[in-house]
């Protein structure tokens, strides 16, 4: 790594890749057993686990810890996110997307809750409940306060017909209350339906009592967390991690540069300037083998995945079947410091099989890539409680 007088630190593309992987928790041996401490450190390092309702393989929020720690008891996440109030370590909120976040991030996101409360944040279709339809949302809040935790379906007419674009008024009002921080997720039903309750009955009091920073200070702290999790990143990467606005992110990045926390850098092959976190590790090698969720923070920003790995990746679930190139639920396979394959996977729970669809090896894949992938598939099947790995008959 070279020091440049004008362009900042000069970083080669392979070194940037290794910095990013180390920042994301790759390159360490799997622990012999995973307890709540390992899980907490992993979530803290990443800053969040993105939530997605698709369950064709396993729900997405379970996968990042598996990719970094190996087999672990998924009940550790369930207890941390939706267990008793006294054992809560995570909470749900809108960060990158719907996410599980460490509790210490709650104060740093209250500015977003406040903006949603006055109709300045949140999806456009929800903002009406901050203004002319606020009374309807307040009535639902009163009902939850009086009757206890409820799903949207527990209210008359609350059951939606499908995705968010088909939500009824009750669901939309509840989601506005969620954006504004008035309610949060108490637990999840087996169907994964969100069960809403008053925030003060879910989030530990010690967290709610933490002071609320001014919005610019919160933006700065979130950008710094993003930089730690990414290692080296463009301004767009940094602000996208927690979905900050361009102006808010610009001010925060400038402040962190002034204080020497972010170091301006130029990465070979990147078209935009980058920033290196001053504490980023710069390993000489990365020894890793991991299947990655489509929503893993290492790859969720597809342009960043292309910059780091030369890997053009799209998830098939949002693509019509006739236009899918590599399958429906496609996981990239990380080997060493490269993405060397992609594999279409699903869990057949009735027959206890991990079903492998299309497998595509990259041109640069090493001779042992297929064997290493097979070992990782066996590891995943065991973690999911499936008895065998089989090829799809489709």
In short:
With 394 residues, the protein is of the alpha+beta class. The protein has 13 helices and 15 strands. Strand 13 and strand 14 (353-361) form a beta hairpin.
Q: How does this model look, in words?
A:
This protein is of the alpha+beta class and 394 residues long. It has 13 helices and 15 strands. Helix 6 (134-147) packs across helix 7 (169-179) and helix 9 (215-230) crosses helix 11 (246-258). The N and C termini lie far apart (48 Å). The model has no long low-confidence stretch (mean pLDDT 94).
SSE arrangement:
Elements: E1 2-4, E2 8-11, H1 13-23, H2 36-46, E3 49-50, H3 63-69, H4 75-82, E4 90-94, E5 98-102, H5 110-117, H6 134-147, H7 169-179, E6 183-188, E7 194-198, H8 205-208, H9 215-230, E8 232-233, H10 235-241, H11 246-258, E9 262-267, E10 274-277, E11 289-291, H12 302-309, E12 330-335, E13 338-348, E14 353-361, H13 369-383, E15 388-391
Parallel strand pairs: 2-9, 14-15
Antiparallel strand pairs: 1-2, 3-5, 4-5, 6-7, 8-10, 9-10, 11-12, 12-13, 13-14
Helix pairs in contact: 5-7, 6-7, 9-10, 9-11, 10-11
């Amino acid at each position: 790594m070279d020091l440049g007088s004008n362009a900042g630190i000069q970083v080669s593309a392979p070194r940037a890749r290794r910095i990013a992987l180390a920042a994301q928790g790759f390159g360490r041996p799997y622990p012999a057993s995973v307890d709540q401490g390992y899980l907490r450190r992993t979530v803290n390092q990443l800053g969040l686990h993105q939530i997605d309702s698709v369950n064709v393989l396993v729900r997405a929020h379970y996968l990042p810890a598996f990719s970094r720690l190996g087999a672990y008891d998924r009940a550790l996440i369930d207890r941390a996110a939706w267990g008793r109030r006294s054992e809560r370590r995570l909470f749900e909120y809108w960060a990158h997307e719907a996410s599980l976040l460490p509790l210490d991030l709650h104060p740093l996101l209250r500015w977003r809750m406040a903006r949603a409360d006055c109709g300045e944040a949140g999806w456009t279709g929800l903002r009406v409940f901050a203004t002319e339809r606020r009374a309807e949302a307040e009535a639902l809040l009163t009902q939850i306060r009086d009757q206890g935790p409820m799903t949207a379906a527990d209210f008359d007419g609350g059951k939606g017909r499908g995705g968010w674009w088909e939500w009824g008024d009750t669901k939309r009002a509840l989601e506005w209350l969620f954006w504004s921080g008035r309610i949060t997720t108490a637990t999840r039903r087996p169907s994964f339906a969100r069960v809403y309750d008053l925030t003060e009955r879910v989030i530990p009091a010690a967290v709610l009592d933490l002071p609320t920073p001014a919005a610019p200070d919160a933006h700065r702290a979130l950008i710094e967390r993003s930089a730690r999790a990414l290692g080296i990143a463009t301004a767009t990467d940094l602000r996208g991690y927690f979905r900050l606005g361009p102006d808010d992110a610009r001010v925060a990045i400038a402040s962190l540069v002034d204080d020497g926390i972010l170091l301006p850098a130029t990465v070979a092959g990147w078209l935009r300037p980058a920033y290196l976190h001053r504490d980023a590790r710069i390993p000489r090698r990365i020894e890793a083998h991991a299947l990655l969720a489509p929503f893993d923070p290492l790859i969720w920003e597809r342009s960043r995945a292309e910059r780091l790995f030369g890997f053009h990746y799209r998830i098939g679930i949002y693509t019509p079947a006739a236009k899918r190139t590599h399958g429906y639920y496609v996981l990239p396979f990380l080997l060493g410091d490269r993405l060397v394959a992609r594999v279409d996977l699903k869990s057949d729970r009735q027959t206890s099989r991990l079903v492998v669809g299309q497998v595509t090896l990259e041109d640069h894949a090493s001779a042992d890539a297929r064997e290493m992938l097979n070992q990782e598939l066996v590891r995943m099947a065991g973690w999911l409680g499936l008895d065998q790995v089989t090829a799809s008959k489709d």
